[in-house]
């Protein structure tokens, strides 16, 4: 894959959604009774896409990272986990009862993902009970993808071995940067040696895939320090690397107020860090999967991309082996039967709803025809990098050029820069265009252009 110029980066580094869903989560509307989710789960049985993916949100962390924008609860009181797990099981039971009851059998789940927060805040026994519980409520085949986000400061080789016994076969380590000065400024100190030992253990335990998360744009990062971090990452050779941009929004995210803005790299430096990272990862043999994600050619994510099976949901890119997504836990989001639904974001609200026998839903959205059409277009661009115009017209009964005349005129600039090729039958993102697929997808986002409010999103690069 070719690299791209700083001019291109500056021109298309605009604020915009990450499109883990379309419509984006800010379009969800209040739904305290969870009516839309009930409808998605059971209204039209055939519209639930099986096998399901399951996401379990564990909100607790022992200490706060200053860059954090996640929904988490910082506590050292591990006793709080037991109460949370009892409510989580109640929620899982309510939802699985609806789904299984309609089919007269346990529905199949092919992907399980634990995220947070820090799932490894839970003890081994608690994690094991949770995994057993899921396997009891759903039918989980032996080759299901089971992944867990791991805070390297909370595990050792022995804990990884326990995770492997519990059927986890994919790990994601939060690294962000190996430079000590950067780590101190973000309040997340973990040595290279610590992560190296875990990577070694993960290999010996034969985890199918190991991901490392990195962030660029953090305080005190510069080209020299970040190049060193990238070299260390390439030496560890994880199967996947997720490279996120830090968005400094201290008004929205309280922990970020503890980051000294003077220490943050400026926009030009930040773009150079991104450029360095892309160059280093491609040079080391990684393939660019799409927005933020890189994978070695043998990884299933890279294979799914080549086979045109890549999909995107609230966890980012995935291999496309799972259908609809059920999210469990405080603030978790589900996508099922043409409905998006987000759970209550506070523990108090989440526990209260379950105590009253309600699904713990806060907001939801039922997709209408135009949403479904635009979702297909946006996800087609984001995941496959191409759109077959004629088949889309047939499926949705539209004339593409007329229906999307506004979007197509917005895309002309991308065509001019060689980022997109367009014929009467097809839109195709070029290899350099892959890095700008997010602003291209924005051209089709009806809500974004209706409200002209791009600024509330983080920048795309
Ligand atoms: S970045 Fe992760 S580990 Fe750190 S506070 Fe946020 S959720 Fe917790």
Overall CATH class of the largest domain: Alpha Beta
Q: CATH superfamily name of the largest domain? A: tm_1862 like domain
Poorly predicted regions are: none
CATH topology (fold) name of the largest domain: pyruvate-formate lyase- activating enzyme
**Tally of structural domains:** 2
Please tally the β strands and state the result.
20
Strand order of the largest sheet: 10-11-9-8-7-6-5-2-14
End-to-end Cα distance: 18 Å
Shape: globular
**Helix proportion range:** 25-40%
- How large, in whole angstroms, is the Cα Rg? 22 Å
Which structural category fits the helices and strands? alpha/beta
Give a quick account of the main beta sheet: strands, pairing sense, barrel closure.
Answer: 9 strands, mixed
Mean pLDDT: 93
Sheet-strand content, in percent, reads: 15-25%
Number of helices: 17
**CATH architecture identity of the largest domain:** Alpha-Beta Horseshoe
Bound molecules: iron/sulfur cluster
Describe the model.
The protein has 461 residues and is α/β, with parallel strands linked by helices. It has 17 helices and 20 strands. Strands 10-11-9-8-7-6-5-2-14 form a nine-stranded mixed beta sheet, sandwiched between helices. A four-stranded antiparallel beta sheet has the order 1-17-16-15, with helices on one face. α4 links the parallel β5 (109-116) and β6 (145-150). α3 runs parallel beside α4, α3 crosses α11 and α8 (223-236) runs parallel beside α9 (267-283). The longest helix has 25 residues, at 79-103. Iron/sulfur cluster is lined by residues 61, 64-65, 68, 70, 72, 116-118, 151, 174.
